């Protein structure tokens, strides 16, 4: 039977004679896959729950043309881990390998980018950049759904640059494809290699959609000088009250952008305070000179100059700004919503930013990961189906609770690896992530045994239970034919 619209359907069963004799027992199996939750996953794949009727642990599931093992099942739900696929829609097939029955859900699952998604240029501003040096600010784009707001995790974005400029996200190449993070963001630093302006383009899943949604940014090269200097980082947003150490790197190149070794670079405070590991550093064969900046209980802004000795010319500035706790925000990056079966969790990462537009990553923010391991009181399949706020039957058992505090790095990133410790069986891990006075994220992860057979969810109008009629005693069973 092919179902093309949402409705209720009645299935009639009769014997071959058609008179519905009551003295025969009938056995019938209806196999039906209805929907998938969530309806979108990253191109790298992820856990999905199939909703339907007549599911058993012996069924086979394929996503596209790829068979996938069952992680957990009951008669109306199957939990699998969708494998990596390219951007676009995929069909999910549920098959009974014994009887040959199958149910096909056509284009029910979207991987990565959808045809209606948008690409937004978040940041592109940079000062003129000397040839052979890296831009102080990244070019940042964001993948969002058709509403223009909802971030899209795991979509393919293809970067390219003109004028032979290289991109940091591509490992120093001119073009590459990368995947958006859980906040929908992708970014790259730009290095012009020859004179002339550079156009940096980002295309959303060009292999799947033609024409692809595209945004562009322009990077301007600086006027040519016999010697040029660039610094990394150029700007630092540091959490107020933090005590941190961070490397400051100057790059010295000649007029054509080739690195200059043996050049002495002076580092000194113009305003503010802190400690530099040295007042001078000499460039290596790649043209880099590095010192370490240390600040304690940071509360005031600073400016540091990096200048080529002995004439202190040319120079580049490094700025630092204190970010108050009330201005901190959290962005998801990777590792959220994991479901594992007999395996360890992957790291969970977030990014701390300030409240500016566009937001800047914050160094030295204290990020608290509060992790609680629970023994769920209801079927864990109900939790993974997407309704994390559903009421459980009774209170879950709290097995452990721990807190880990991590300081964000210069990219604003902080991460921890969730664990269930020595506990085994069906477990839920609830993680609350906080920073500053109000920044908060929450996540739920599931840890299952290698083989898990769940119980059926409670009956509801949208999820009716299977009803089995009593069989007459002492009468022979005969095959039934299903007529639709």
Structural description of this entry:
- The radius of gyration is 29 Å and the shape is elongated.
- It has about 475 residues and is mainly β.
- The protein has 1 helix and 39 strands.
- It has one helix at about 380-385; strands at about 10-15, 30-35, 40, 45-55, 60-65, 65-70, 70-75, 75-80, 90-95, 100-110, 120-125, 140-145, 155-160, 165, 175-180, 185-190, 190, 200-205, 215-220, 225-230, 235-240, 245-255, 265-270, 275, 280, 290-295, 300-310, 315-325, 330-335, 340, 350-355, 360-365, 365-375, 395-405, 415, 425-435, 440-450, 450-455, 480-484.
Report how far apart the termini are: 7 Å
Instruction: Outline the biggest β-sheet.
Output: 6 strands, mixed
Strand line-up in the sheet with most strands? 25-23-27-28-21-32
What is the β-strand count? Answer: 39
The whole-angstrom Rg is: 29 Å
Class derived from helix and strand content: mainly beta
């Amino acid at each position: 039977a092919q179902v093309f619209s949402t409705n209720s359907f009645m299935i009639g069963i009769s014997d071959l004679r058609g008179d519905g004799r009551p003295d025969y027992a009938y056995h019938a199996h209806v196999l039906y896959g209805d929907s998938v939750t969530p309806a979108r996953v990253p191109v790298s794949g992820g856990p999905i729950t199939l909703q339907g009727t007549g599911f058993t642990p012996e069924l086979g599931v394929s996503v596209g043309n790829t068979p996938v093992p069952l992680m957990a099942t009951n008669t109306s739900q199957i939990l699998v881990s969708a494998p990596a696929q390219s951007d676009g829609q995929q069909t999910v097939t549920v098959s009974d390998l014994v009887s040959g029955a199958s149910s096909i859900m056509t284009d029910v699952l979207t991987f990565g980018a959808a045809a209606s998604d948008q690409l937004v240029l978040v940041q592109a501003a940079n000062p003129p950049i000397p040839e052979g040096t890296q831009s102080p600010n990244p070019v940042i784009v964001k993948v969002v759904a058709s509403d223009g707001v909802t971030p899209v995790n795991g979509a393919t974005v293809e970067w390219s640059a003109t004028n032979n400029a290289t991109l940091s996200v591509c490992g120093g190449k001119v073009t590459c494809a990368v995947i958006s993070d859980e906040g929908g963001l992708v970014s790259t630093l730009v290095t012009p290699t020859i004179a002339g302006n550079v156009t940096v383009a980002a295309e959303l899943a060009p292999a799947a959609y033609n024409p692809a949604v595209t945004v562009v940014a322009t990077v301007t090269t600086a006027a040519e000088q016999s010697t040029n200097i660039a610094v990394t980082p150029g700007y630092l947003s540091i959490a107020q009250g933090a005590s941190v150490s961070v490397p400051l790197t100057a790059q010295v190149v000649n007029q054509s952008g080739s690195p200059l070794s043996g050049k002495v670079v002076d580092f000194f405070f113009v305003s503010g305070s802190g400690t530099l590991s040295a007042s001078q550093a000499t460039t290596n064969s790649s043209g880099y000179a590095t010192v370490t900046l240390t600040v304690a209980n940071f509360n005031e802004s600073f400016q540091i100059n990096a200048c080529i000795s002995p004439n202190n010319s040319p120079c580049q500035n490094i700025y630092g700004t204190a970010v108050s706790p009330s201005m901190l925000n959290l962005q998801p990056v990777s590792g959220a919503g994991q479901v594992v079966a007999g395996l360890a969790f992957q790291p969970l990462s977030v990014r701390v930013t300030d409240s500016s537009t566009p937001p800047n990553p914050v160094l030295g923010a204290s990020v608290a990961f509060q992790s609680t391991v629970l023994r769920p009181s209801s079927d864990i399949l109900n939790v993974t189906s997407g309704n994390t706020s559903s009421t459980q039957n009774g209170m879950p058992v709290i097995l452990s609770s721990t807190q880990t505090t991590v300081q964000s790095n210069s990219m604003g990133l902080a991460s921890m690896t969730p664990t269930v410790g020595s506990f085994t069986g069906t477990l839920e891990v609830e993680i609350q992530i906080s920073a500053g006075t109000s920044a908060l994220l929450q996540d739920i992860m599931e840890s299952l045994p290698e083989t898990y057979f769940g119980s059926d969810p409670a009956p509801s109008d949208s999820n009716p239970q299977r009803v089995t009629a009593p069989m007459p005693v002492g009468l022979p069973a005969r095959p039934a034919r299903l007529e639709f």
